[in-house]
Design a protein that fits this description.
alpha+beta; 6-stranded antiparallel beta sheet; Reverse transcriptase Ty1/copia-type domain-containing protein; RVT_2; 29% helix; 2 domains; 417 residues
Length: 417
């Protein structure tokens, strides 16, 4: 039996279970002896008057009913009281009133309760003790060595080295299942110094208006729309500056103190996006493509057999056109120049969920909106037809540094959507 989990549904499930467990453990640690009539006496019915708040942020809600949380199927970490915990206390406007899990089929229900057995390491030492994450780190190191990313040399006098760290991510397939564990070595670019180890950093990416026009053209011309992913894209860029980086944690060479003299760009460096785009542009232009004067991230090639269009956003590439042979040829050429992964028909790009129908494309930003609510801490708020308060207050609004940054990030996210 097969089933499909959309990225938005998976993110919601992960959020609901994670917040429920976190809140339950916090309440268990904070609980103490209670006395009749005291503020901690919870023998009587309890009802919260509104969304829970912490440091000025509305916290995500608990689930409204026990049937939304398969506690007996959640992985335990030594706390055996999970199955005996009573139904959680709900907020005034729980998210489960609008989106819950009770309509999932039994196979899908079993799937979403098992995905939390994969943990994200908090340190290099913790990752090295796990076979899966250790293999992912070794795969990353093999890719770096095969790409001849650096040479081990003593740090010259008068130079400084950039530090680095490991980033761990669980990659999921389009149907929601775990695809692979990804460990990526990232340089801490904020330790770089302008004029010493980097100069130009600006890199072109696809404009959102260009994406909209391309999608409209695909629908109007009934063209196919494919997506490619460049594996370790930034490792293909050529560095023009002299950059030294500390050795990867957990994979240091014993003996004399050495550093990595970078020959290729690496994730985290300020100039890496620019170096990668320059390398990609050289490859596609050598294949007969021409960048558009309106958007230099859009490349076109016109031949007697038809037209092929490429749109690049960092390491995500969209390919369309009416030249079937030409599309297959450019896929093979890109795979020979870089290590690519053919994702097939476009499904998700820049926060847009794309579904193909016979009469066109269906676009949705459900996952993007849910992620924005979750990051802002407003997934437990009551939905409103308009964001403006019905009754305005004459009291001055005091904005802290945290709230100002949050407001700026929310506005930036909406403008970018």
């Amino acid at each position: 039996m097969s089933f499909v989990v959309s990225p938005a549904e998976y993110m919601l499930v992960q959020y609901l279970f994670g917040e429920y467990q976190r809140d339950r453990h916090q309440r268990a640690r904070a609980s103490g002896p209670t006395f009749p009539g005291s503020r901690r006496d919870e023998s009587g019915p309890r009802r919260e008057s509104g969304p829970r708040r912490y440091e000025g942020r509305v916290q995500p809600p608990l689930l409204a009913s026990a049937q939304d949380t398969p506690v007996n199927q959640l992985p335990t970490t030594g706390d055996t009281s999970a199955t005996a915990d009573p139904a959680p206390v709900s907020t005034a406007h729980p998210l489960a009133n609008y989106v819950s899990l009770h309509r999932l089929t039994p196979p899908l229900y079993a799937f979403v309760t098992s995905i939390f057995s994969i943990f994200i390491p908090n340190s290099v030492q913790e990752a090295l003790t796990h076979p899966g994450w250790r293999a992912a780190m070794e795969d990353e190191m093999r890719a770096l060595w095969a790409n001849q990313t650096w040479d081990l040399v003593p740090l010259p006098t008068g130079h400084t080295s950039v530090s680095c760290k490991w980033i761990f991510v669980v990659k999921h397939a389009a149907d929601g299942i775990v695809d692979r564990l990804k460990a990526r070595l990232v340089a801490r670019g904020f330790t770089q110094q302008h004029g010493l180890d980097y100069e130009e950093t600006f890199s072109l990416v696809a404009k959102l208006n260009t994406v909209r026009v391309l999608l409209s053209l695909v629908v109007h011309r009934h063209w196919p729309l494919y997506q490619l992913d460049i594996k370790n894209a930034f490792l293909n860029g050529d560095l023009q500056e002299t950059v030294y980086m500390q050795q990867p944690p957990g994979f240091e060479t014993t003996g004399e103190s050495l550093v990595c003299h970078l020959r290729k760009s690496i994730y985290g460096l300020k100039q890496s996006p620019r170096a990668w785009f320059e390398k990609f542009s050289k490859v596609v232009c050598a294949s007969g493509f021409t960048p558009s004067s309106a958007d230099f991230s859009l490349f076109t090639r016109h031949r007697s057999t038809g037209t092929v269009i490429l749109l690049v956003y960092v390491d995500d590439i969209l390919i369309t056109g009416n030249d079937t042979t030409g599309i297959q040829q450019i896929k093979e050429q890109l795979n020979s120049a870089f290590q690519t992964k053919d994702l097939g028909n476009l499904r998700y790009f820049l926060g847009l969920e794309v579904a193909r129908r016979s009469d066109g494309l269906v676009l949705s930003q459900r996952k993007y909106c849910m992620g924005l609510l979750h990051d802002a801490g407003y997934s437990g708020c009551k939905p409103a037809e308009t964001p403006m308060d019905a009754i305005t207050s004459s009291r001055p609004i005091v904005l802290t540094l945290t709230s100002c940054l949050q407001i700026r990030n929310i506005i930036d996210a909406w403008l970018g959507s």
